[in-house]
Fold:
Amino acid sequence: MKKLKPRSLNALLKERLKDPEFARKYHALDEEFTLIKIIIDKRLETGLTQAELAKKMKTKQPSVARLESGHYNPSFKFLQKLAHAFDCQLEIKFVPRKKTKRAAAVAN
Structure:
């Protein structure tokens, strides 16, 4: 039996991103992953555990865990409670997308 050589997650991702279909689906999740990363980073920056954050939000720890794992699509109300727990103001804005070379070529 042939032994498999261990690879890092980054090496595996780099290889998989060569597949156009995988890359399209992966990049379609960029905005969702960005939001999750911002929330996790803010929680860690404030030194809160998931349970402590949940208590400040008047919710349960599994709700925070589902959000951070990407298994929950938060409502606007949930995001407001999250911002309040972080002593922040929730700000949502629409910004123009960066045009890729491909998108620019299609537009012309």
Residues 46 and 86 are 8 Å apart (CA to CA). The chain has seven helices and no strands.
